[in-house]
Amino acid sequence: MTALLGISGLTAHYGDFQALFGVDLTLDEGQTVAIIGANGAGKTTLLRAITGVAKVTAGTVTLAGEDITRLPAPDILTRGIAMVPEGRRLFPSLTVEENLMIGAHARQGNGHWTLDRVQTLFPILKDRRYSPGTALSGGQQQMVAIGRALMSNPRVLLCDELSLGLAPVVIKEIYAAFPRIKASGTSIIVVEQDISQALRVADQVHCMMEGRITLSGRPDELSRAAIHDAYFGVSHA
Amino acid sequence: MIGIDTLAQGLLLGGLYALFAAGLSLVFGIMRLVNLAHGDLIILGAYLILTITTATGLHPFLAVFLAAPVMFGFGWLLQTHLLNRVLGPDILPPLLVTFGLSVVIQNALLEGYTADSQKLSAGPIEAQAMDLGVVTLGVMPVLTFLSAVAVIFLLNQLFYRTALGRAFRATSDDAVTAQLMGIRPERVFAMATGIALVVATIAALYLGTRSNFDPSIGPARLLYAFEAVIIGGLGSLWGTLAGGVVIGMAQAVGASINPEWQILSGHIAFVVVLLLRPRGLFPRAND
Q1: Which domain holds residue B103?
Q2: Which chain A residue is nearest to residue B186, measuring alpha carbons?
């Protein structure tokens, strides 16, 4: 069976600096994959390479068998991959509702996620719909960023560091939305530094270090020690 | 003493300067591009209207409806084939390119139309006036001001009430993240420049019907436009109207004291506003 998202030998550079070294990864329909790793491990670069923002220098990215490597970012979105970027990156001159609506800018046809459904998923976004997006708390901004990505009705949702800078109770509230997102038919890749959170939501976990995947497996297969070693690059020889 | 008449004439003159500036403000607001050829593009628009009126016998107010789509297309092509190539973190390349474009337009117009002054003839309306008792207003200046208000209002509606306006603002905020929303910044920029040149064509209509023009006067229009944009606050459309009015009023007041002071007074007002409010009268909150 063809994976929904297939990544093979993906290599990416920032100028002369190589950030990814032949990364292989698959995401199946309905699956949630977590990518964990320390700062600078290449997690964000991987998501940026998938979405066409970072330059891919080798390897392929396929979506349902179609090669989408090196397509411009807007074309990748219209094919069904949306991203919640690190730091939310809301548009300051847009209200909360406009930030959500801009997510549907390139949407073709109908889909599960509408403004009403996103506002049902995160009710606070309806109450604050006329506020500037950046006037909200960090957690609420994260909800806007997720809702904005959902508005394109993606087949694959890429979430970059959802928990960054948020209180545990807020992180819990945000991840509580994942089952409903998955139920809508969206598969998810979540990049996290919060290992516990990643293990709770993921069907499959990959640990990255220095641009390479150093450990992969189901959460229940991986021991804490193995994850710790892969995360920090410690070897118990 | 400065009379109501002087202030009224200044207000209406501000409408013309706001029309000069609106396109510049739009382009700067969206792509942070200072188009040094903006004044010459206005003059190009005036010559285009002149050519249409000469060829077809149409009144300039009708010819502008033919000229505007042509200028929109020209703006689109200019952005996609030239300006998009030089936009980036370094502000120098677009400045140099638009400066070069200014020279090219001036020389092309000289070749095509000679250096002779031209004027668009709007007929009897040019000399008509409205007597409001305390003040008498020329019909053309009033039309110019009303057009400026209408243009700024429509641009604001476009900006804040349409999907295209959302895309304009999002791209202006963060072009990389905008691409993740399916927005193609290069197309947004092309649309913005196209619309800016439509506004420049409207400005050209009033410039050409109210005064003589020749290929060399573009840079001075750019200066007034630039001052209006800066006074109003970069990227603020209503601020641009206010900026135009400030310059117009300053010029009218200066001229009422001494006719030689007209132009200088506008520039002094610009410097004073810059000293008192360096970000302009109505800066955008996130600039």
Answers
A1: 7-276
A2: A74
Note whether residue B2 is domain-resident: no
CB-nearest partner of A74 from B173, B182, B286: B182
Of the candidates A170, A55, A63, A192, the residue with the CA atom closest to the CA atom of residue A124: A170
Copy the structure tokens of residue A150. 């959902």
| Domains of chain A by residue range | 5-232
Judged by CB atoms closer than 8 Å, whether chains meet at A85 and B180 is answered as yes
ipTM at complex level: 0.90
Helix axes B185-210, B163-173, angle to 10 degrees: 110
Q: Which residues of B125-147 are buried (b: 16+ CB within 10 A; e: fewer)?
A: eeeeeeeeeeeebbebbbbbbeb
- Domain count for chain B: 1
Q: pTM here?
A: 0.90
Domain A5-232 has CATH 3.30.200.20: no
| pLDDT single digits (tens) A173-182 | 999 999 999 9
Question: How do residues B169-227 score in pLDDT, each as one tens digit?
Answer: 999 999 999 999 999 999 999 999 999 999 999 999 999 999 999 999 999 999 999 99
Determine the distance in angstroms separating the CA of A219 from the nearest CA of chain B, rounded to an integer. Answer: 30
